[in-house]
Amino acid sequence: MKLRVHHRTEYIYAPPARNNNNELRLQPLHNEWQQRRFHVLRVLPSARLRRFADFHANGVHHFEVEEAHDRLVIEVESAVQTHNRYAGGEPRGATMASLEKAARSDEAHMFLLESRYVSLSSDAWRAAVDALNGEDDVFAVCKNIMRWVHERSSYKSGVTTVGTTSQDFLKAPTGVCQDYTHLMLALCRSLKIPARYVSGYLFELTPGEMRGAQASHAWCEVFVPGFGWHGMDPTNDRLVDEHYIALATGRDYDDVAPVKGTFYGGGHRQMVVAVNVEEG
After folding, report:
1. Closest Cα to residue 188, out of 234, 238, 256?
2. What are 53-58's contacts with CB under 8 Å, separation 24+?
């Protein structure tokens, strides 16, 4: 599927800000399931952009605006070709026992550990065991966890914050895609299933059909021994197919935040974000 994205973020500062340093993770990944065809990034006030790859191989742009400014605009246009990794069927056949070897691999080990927003508490382990439902196939277990999180959670913006952890959401399961994803990560990791956070976008054919479309979105990728990483979206109880565009992967939101930075001044900051995803 050919998809195009326009993502615009505007910050308004009062009083003006200065020495504004930012890292952006807004460049679509380029891999077997998604080819980046076009990507343009613009920043106002104009600043020199420096590009590098982070520890998780995500494309990162860094810039600094030293002079005082009361407005910062970050505008991105991207085009990608996506493919459905489930077109040939689901990756079945890997048993839970096969995870022991996977846990020792460099590719998967770090995604078994606690992280800033993912807590491996006894409550998370008990919830994961409930979701297990007697399954021994790794992919089937992950689908059960995805459905468990989806069915026991309520989607509502403005209830949680960027600092809400998986444990917070487990106790009060009302929030947004970031919260659903952190909770699924916690349950998977509690069962020794490597799982990582993915940031990106979701394209929907019918407006209002999917939660998190036409906005920044988040979902999980789980590691299935012998088959690699596969995406699952607990917010929509859906396998990640060609309708999704991935920007970055990491242990949790802290590793993949689209915009992360610091500045001086600007006692009050207002942020306005607009995202449009379309086919073509």
Report:
1. 234
2. 54/25, 54/255, 56/248, 56/249, 56/250, 56/255, 56/256, 58/25, 58/27, 58/29, 58/247, 58/248, 58/249, 58/250, 58/256
**CA pair distance 137, 141, nearest whole angstrom:** 6
- Set out the domains of the chain in order of their start, with CATH numbers: 2-82+257-279 (2.60.40.2250), 96-256 (3.10.620.30)
**What is the pLDDT tens value at each position of the chain, 280 positions in all?**
999 999 999 999 999 999 999 999 999 999 999 999 999 999 999 999 999 999 999 999 999 999 999 999 999 999 999 999 999 999 999 999 999 988 888 889 999 999 999 999 999 999 999 998 889 999 999 999 999 999 999 999 999 999 999 999 999 999 999 999 999 999 999 999 999 999 999 999 888 789 988 889 999 999 999 999 999 999 999 999 999 999 999 999 999 999 999 999 867 889 999 999 999 8
Residues 6+ apart with CB under 8 A from 276: 5, 6, 7, 214
